[in-house]
Structure formats: structure tokens, C-alpha cells
């Protein structure tokens, strides 16, 4: 959590994001800004599907893609659609702590047993399903994944601003992630 940059005022928002929809996202969610009416959206929010996270934003403010671990690798057509058709100019990528996709490979037994008990699957079918998809969705350490995915999206969509954010479950607030300018993004496209 040493990479988290708190946002308690507009001054805490890095300059590169102050004239983007990310500023409004942080003003709405963290700073309690009263909602304005929005007729269209310039922002795409990519965030985890975890039910413990709820953003405080007005209607029509943002496109939202929820995917385990905020992993957008398999949502690129949706991202491209939001940019090409929806007019999005900015992406806020929001990871969070205590994410189930961090270390998902260690949850094999719980996963398999849950599918057997709740979905009526055979143990063999549930195990094969887990083994076939587990590594596609494993994100590793949460902040590192968000920073890596941010770099990948910036390479994929060079004219789109991509902001790495983090939702802390304990206080329900958004933080910026401190970026290491020397790290390289994996080429996964």
C-alpha cells in the first residue's frame, strides 16, 4: 500500500489528470461534490466485479466495465467501442485491495467445491474449468497489476488518457497509484 496517493482535495490530483474526467470522478466519489447532469460520457471506468465497491457518481457520467481484478485484457472490443462509438477520451482503471483474483490459483478447492455444490457440476468438470481459465484471470499483486494494465492500455490506445486508481475497501475511497516510469508493460495484444 506504499504506492497509494490519497486524494483529500483537488490539489492532491496530479496535474496531468486535473483537466480530465478523472478529476470529476474523484470530486464526486472522494470529495462529495454535488452531482451535475451529464448527457454523455467521456470516461470509461474499468473496475473489479467485487460487490464491496460502489462508486459515488451521477447517471450518464461514465461507461463502466466490471471484470475480475479490473482485468480488461478480454474486454478490448468493449473498450474500443466506448472510444470509437461512445467518444471516450479517458479511462480510469480501478483496482482494489483484498481482490479475489490476486492469488486465485490458491483458491482451487473452494472454486471447485462451490461449483460442485452450487452449480451441480461434476468434480472433474469443475477442476478442468478451473485449470483451463485460472491463469488467464490471475492478476498477482493488486497494485502491480493495475500499473501493468495501465501501461498496456496506454500502448494500445496512445491518444487515450489512462489513470491508475485504487479503491481501498476499508475506507471506500479512491487513491492514485504512484507510477514507476522505468517499468515496462507486457505486450499482450
What does this protein look like?
By secondary structure, the protein is of the alpha/beta class. The chain folds into two domains: 4-100 and 145-177, Carbonic anhydrase (Beta-carbonic Anhydrase, Chain A, 3-Layer(aba) Sandwich), CATH 3.40.1050; 103-138, no CATH class. The chain has five helices and six strands, in the order βαββαβαααββ. It has helices at residues 21-29, 76-84, 108-119, 123-137, 142-156, and strands at 4-6, 43-47, 62-66, 90-96, 161-168, 173-177. It has a six-stranded mixed sheet, with helices on both faces. Strand 5 and strand 6 (173-177) form a beta hairpin. Helix 3 crosses helix 4 (123-137). It is globular. Residues 182-189 have low confidence and may be disordered.
Summarize the structure.
By secondary structure, this protein is an alpha/beta fold. It has helices at 21-29, 76-84, 108-119, 123-137, 142-156, and strands at residues 4-6, 43-47, 62-66, 90-96, 161-168, 173-177. The protein has two domains: 4-100 and 145-177, Carbonic anhydrase (Beta-carbonic Anhydrase, Chain A, 3-Layer(aba) Sandwich); 103-138, no CATH class.
